[in-house]
Amino acid sequence: QVQLVESGGGLVQPGGSLRLSCAASGSIFSIYDMGWYSQAPGKQRELVATITSGGTTNYADSVKGRFTISRDNAKNTVYLQMNSLNPEDTAVYYCNANRYSNKVRGRLNYWGQGTQVTVSS
After folding, report:
1. Are 39 and 92 spatial neighbours (Cβ–Cβ below 8 Å)?
2. Which residues pair with 59 in a beta bridge?
3. Mean pLDDT throughout 30-47?
4. Dihedral sign for Cα atoms in the order 4, 73, 56, 79
5. Read out DSSP for 44-104?
6. Cα within 13 Å of Cα(17), Cβ side
7. Distance from C-alpha of 34 to C-alpha of 24, rounded to nearest angstrom
8. Could you give the 3-state DSSP secondary structure of residue 32?
9. Which site in 17, 46, 57, 60 is 20 to 30 Å from 86, CA atoms measured?
């Protein structure tokens, strides 16, 4: 089991920046692939960025060049640095941890409770 707690959301003006954090506990953080997902009102949850246990990153086209995902295994924390924010980035941002399990022969997924990001003037 993995417990995930996000923080760092809030209200920011267009063009501004925020850094989200996701603190993990309950298991060996370094073996998990981590990700950030967003869900805007009335829309499905969608991928923002992921980082594997080995450090390989992947981004949605809409955030490439603006957002950076990183992880600190010593602190059991994954970050999402968000720059040049625009109103379309407004959403609840969720942290995800996942890994393959031989026991269940599939991926185990864990989610945080989400943190609200609002971009508005």
Report:
1. yes
2. 49
3. 95
4. positive
5. --EEEEEE-TT--EEE-GGGTTTEEEEEETTTTEEEEEE-S--GGG-EEEEEEEEEEETTT
6. 8
7. 10
8. coil
9. 57
Residue appearing with tokens 């508005």? 120
Show the tokens assigned to 56: 């390989």
Residue 7 is encoded by which pair of tokens?
Answer: 């923080």
Phi and psi at 17, nearest 5°, equal: -130, 155
Confidence check: pLDDT of 1 > 90: no
Decide the pairing of beta strands 3-7 and 33-39.
unpaired
What pLDDT band is residue 28 in, cutting at 50, 70 and 90?
confident
Which of 3, 20, 2 has the alpha carbon at shortest distance from 12? 20
Residue pointed to by tokens 């399990």: 101
Kindly state the tokens that stand for 18.
Answer: 């925020």
Alpha-carbon distance of 44 to 121, in angstroms, equals 25
